[in-house]
Amino acid sequence: MKIIHTSDWHLGHQLHGYDREYEHQAFLDWLAETLEREQADALLVSGDIFDTANPPASAWQMLYRFLARMAKALPDMDVVITGGNHDSPSKLDAPHELLKAFDLHMVGGIRRLPDGSLDIERMLIPVSDKSGETTVWVMAVPFPRSSDLRTQHLEEVDDRLIAGVRELYREVYEAAKTRLEPGQALVAMGHCYMASGSLSEMSERRILGGNQHALPADIFQDDITYVALGHLHLAQQVAKQSRIRYSGSPIPLSLSERHYHHQVLSVELNGGELADVLSLEIPRTVELMRVPEKAAPLDDVLKALKSLKLEELPREEQPLVEVALLLDQPQPMLREKILKAIKDKPLRLARIATRYTCEVSDNPMENRRLEEVTPEQVFTYGWQRKFEGAPDEAMMKAFEQLMVEAETAEEQDV
After folding, report:
1. Which residue from 46, 51, 93, 362 has the least number of CB within 10 angstroms?
2. How far apart are CA 235 and CA 282, in angstroms?
């Protein structure tokens, strides 16, 4: 039994104002070819299909073209897609019944029945091998928002959010165990931040209240054969367990990922046992560059840019460049000077990263772009200025909870 695990497609994403449609389409074409070559029995996509809750029509078209291609090329392959924190649960759930008829299962959000119990049937999906026999049960759990959890009855717990997620997975797990037969594997999906996970710089949102609510690996019972995770954009094991994995994003979502090799995971199951997990590297279709690698004075940078020898490429395939400058004082017409240096180059200017040789003030926010700082850094600096001391742990937790509630409200509005 072979399963391909991927996540965090972020269709509709823009990087510093540049559309990523060409890169996403190249990835989906590569993924389709890989699924056919590997003769996969199932494809699991663990959340963040789209970059926003209200993606452009072109992003939906890419998704549906891919699903139609797979339904035609591999009609016996099961596809299971769960919603992430960037996705709109209602929009992903809208075509659920139609897609289910083609063994395409899209579970956007957690639903409850009129009596308040979980609608577990939507989250338990049988996956068949090429003979048509059910060999795997998938716990297709989408991103759990705070409003999805039931924590009122949980007493004497250190963290109600973690306890609520643990209870959610326990309910789904217990229902799955009643269906599981000897020789069948149990696979869990999740879109969450796990304890000790490594984040990609400036490209992932806080979820479930930030790092204070990082989930422990033991929310997944020991007899779950494999856990297919999404949210973190760098592929990694959790708690050094080969069965609990992030596949990472398929294309770079931050300029900091320029040296990282993106991948999907090929998971081999033998009955109820995990046989092997292999990484399949995704070809990079658009290069990310930093010129120079280490920040340098303006004259040196302009000289380095002018000396670049690059292959002529269509606009959407041209490299995205981050220019790294070391200045002793602000420079007028900086962007114009850089654009002039690359005007005849098949190159797209993504970002100018400026660093100064000396601090001109005690404000760590000065001379930094908005996208270079997090809300937590701004809040901490403002608190220190007003109260002459760092906010304590309780205050930071309260601030992060407000951030989560604001993001959740924004997603529900669209």
Report:
1. 362
2. 12
CA–CA gap between residue 231 and residue 208 (Å, rounded): 12
CA distances from 356 to 294, 298, 331, 373 (A): 13, 12, 11, 17
The residues of the chain scoring below 50 in pLDDT are 210-211, 359-361, 411, 413-414
Q: Where are the beta strands (DSSP E) in 302-374?
A: 320-327, 348-356
The three state secondary structure string of 169-237 is HHHHHHHHHHHCCCCCEEEEEEECCECCCCCCCCCCCCCCCCHHHCECHHHCCCCCCEEEEECCCCCEE
**Tokens matching residue 346:** 């098949």
Helix or strand run (H / E) with residue 266: strand 263-270
DSSP 387: H
What pLDDT was estimated at residue 78? 95
Q: What is the pLDDT of residues 327-386, one digit of tens each?
A: 988 888 999 999 999 999 999 999 999 988 864 445 555 556 555 667 777 887 777 666
Q: How far is CA 117 from the centre of its chain?
A: 29
Rg (CA), the chain: 23
Q: Look up residue 96 and give its two tokens.
A: 């659920």
91: helix, strand or coil: helix
Question: Which pair of tokens denotes residue 373?
Answer: 């700082």
Look at the block and give the residue holding tokens 């790092």.
211
